[in-house]
């Protein structure tokens, strides 16, 4: 057996085992999580804040804020998947069973919190806002979801998140201030 054939065999076996575990996860989700109170909370936290934002956003800043918000969504999803896959944390009561992320956090709460901070007092020091965001998300938001038994820390501590959240806010702030787009022709 060649090295390539050995790698293919190991990878196929691993993928087969993962598929069995995903089927078990979906079965648990269908029978116990879907439509449970914590599932409804997740669904509500994913949808309702966006409705409020659409109604009360500063319309002249929508594109700029969404530009920063999409960056936050992407980076949040990527970091969440990496943390889950490396066994640093995991989520129970997922909105969608096969995705190892908590949609309300990654697609709503993180981006909307940053978008809100970007639009409120736009001339305020971004370092202060980044610090406020990092403290709120790392030491209030994460412990709250852990208390609800949704977020389970394995090899992670809340204070590890603070510098990451700080940097995410600063990059989003930078992105939201970009003005150099060429005209479409």
Brief summary of the model shown:
The chain has 185 residues and is mainly alpha-helical. It has helices spanning 3-33, 37-56, 62-85, 103-119, 126-147, 158-176; strands spanning 89-91, 151-153.
Question: Can you describe this structure?
Answer:
With 185 residues, this protein is mainly α. The chain has helices at residues 3-33, 37-56, 62-85, 103-119, 126-147, 158-176, and strands spanning 89-91, 151-153. The protein folds into two domains: 1-33; 35-176, no CATH class.
Topology:
Blueprint: H1 3-33, H2 37-56, H3 62-85, E1 89-91, H4 103-119, H5 126-147, E2 151-153, H6 158-176
Antiparallel strand pairs: 1-2
Helix pairs in contact: 2-4, 3-4, 3-6, 5-6
Query: What is the number of helical segments per DSSP (H or I, 4+ residues)?
Result: 6
Helix content: over 70%
Separation of termini?
57 Å
The total domain count is 2
What is the average per-residue confidence, as pLDDT, rounded to a whole number?
A: 94
Shape: globular
Largest sheet: 2 strands, antiparallel
Spatial strand sequence of the major β-sheet? 1-2
Q: Estimate what percentage of residues fall within beta strands.
A: under 5%
Low-confidence stretches: none
């Amino acid at each position: 057996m060649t090295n390539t054939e050995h790698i293919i065999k190991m990878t196929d076996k691993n993928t087969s085992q993962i598929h069995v575990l995903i089927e078990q996860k979906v079965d648990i989700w269908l029978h116990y999580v879907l439509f449970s109170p914590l599932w409804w909370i997740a669904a509500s936290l994913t949808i309702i804040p966006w409705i409020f934002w659409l109604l009360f956003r500063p319309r002249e800043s929508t594109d700029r804020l969404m530009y920063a918000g999409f960056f936050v969504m992407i980076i949040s999803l990527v970091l969440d998947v990496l943390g889950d896959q490396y066994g640093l944390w995991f989520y129970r009561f997922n909105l969608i069973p096969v995705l190892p992320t908590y949609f309300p956090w990654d697609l709503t709460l993180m981006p909307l919190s940053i978008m809100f901070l970007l639009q409120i007092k736009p001339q305020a020091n971004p370092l202060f806002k980044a610090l406020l965001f990092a403290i709120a998300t790392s030491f209030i938001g994460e412990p709250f979801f852990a208390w609800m038994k949704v977020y389970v820390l394995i090899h992670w501590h809340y204070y590890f998140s603070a510098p990451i959240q700080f940097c995410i806010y600063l990059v989003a702030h930078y992105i939201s201030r970009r003005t150099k787009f060429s005209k479409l022709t």
